Amino acid sequence: MLVDSFGRVATDLRVSLTDRCNLRCVYCMPPEGLPWLPKPELLTDDEVIRLVSLGVRRLGIAEVRFTGGEPLLRRGLPGLVAATSALSPRPEISLTTNGIGLERLAAPLAEAGLDRVNVSLDTLDRDVFVRLAHRDRLADVLAGLAAAAAAGLTPVKVNAVLMRGINDHEAVPLLRFCLEHGYDLRFIEQMPLDAQHGWRREDMVTADEIHRVLAGSFTLTPDDPAERGSAPAELFLVDGGPARVGVIGSVTRPFCGSCDRVRLTADGQVRNCLFATEESDLRGAMRAGVDDDELAARWIAAVGRKRAGHGIDDPAFLQPDRPMSAIGG
């Protein structure tokens, strides 16, 4: 098992398949983009499957989420999903995506064994979308959401980040939209993971603010906290349910004490936290020819060094060098 020194067990593996993205969201990267990882540095499909298989069969991983960058840009994605689905015990398989290309790929991914998707949608306004993402692709994202629902990739989850002065007026419209279409909405506090290192706490729309705005238009009732487990979202029944909305207070309401996640970057580094400043190299060990016993031992040792929390409130906190696009969600 992947157990850290605080007794937390990692059962949820986030696998970044690429650092590339076809959007330029302001909370992630500059409009001109970033230098991408050279292809030889990326894990091959076979290397991804070897590590995922090792995690599932020997180290207790029960959930695998493919992330990016934008994972739909990975040419071999359906094959990776199919190979993961064939593992025994079979893990739950999900995907975090910006939705561009999902209209075309939702059905093939569902057929390959994908269980569900999380789609980023920060606005319903085309002009605001362009301002946030520097691309005119809102229609593609909405089409991708509809295709995911039609393909049975349910529950379809929507992730929204509110930016002060840009889209913070859209909390209620976003929730109404998701209720109408049967999507599960999660609001996420903006985190210090932008490549520009321009994050400022005073610019962040907090979990308390989001709740206050939503409560002005809906009756929000706290859901059973026992059902939350290690999930990052604090859930509320909307107008008595059964629909729910989640608020992920990564900064102001950290949930580090129940974290069960471990991350694998597109270039084969183990990361214990989005905000980790240390990584452990599995790619180099694989390419040097070590066997699965040695790989497992290295992975176990890496997770054993996981810190107690992300430390954002620590005066000595340093934003990680890698931006979100190079870490994975």
State the CATH architecture: Alpha-Beta Barrel
Percent strand equals 15-25%
Report the sheet with the most strands, covering strand number, pairing sense and barrel closure.
12 strands, mixed
Mean pLDDT comes to 91
Helix and strand sequence:
EHEHEHEHHEHEHEHEEEEEHH
CATH class: Alpha Beta
CATH topology: TIM Barrel
| Oligomeric status | single chain
Strands, count: 12
Strands in their spatial order, largest beta sheet = 7-8-9-6-5-4-3-2-1-10-11-12
How far apart, in Å, are the first and last alpha carbons? 22 Å
Query: Ranges with pLDDT <50 over ≥5 residues?
Result: none
Task: Work out the count of structural domains.
Answer: 1
Shape: globular
Helix content, binned percent: 25-40%
Radius of gyration: 19 Å
Structural class of the helices, strands and pairings? alpha/beta
- Summed up, the helix count is 10
Question: Mind telling me the CATH superfamily name?
Answer: Aldolase class I
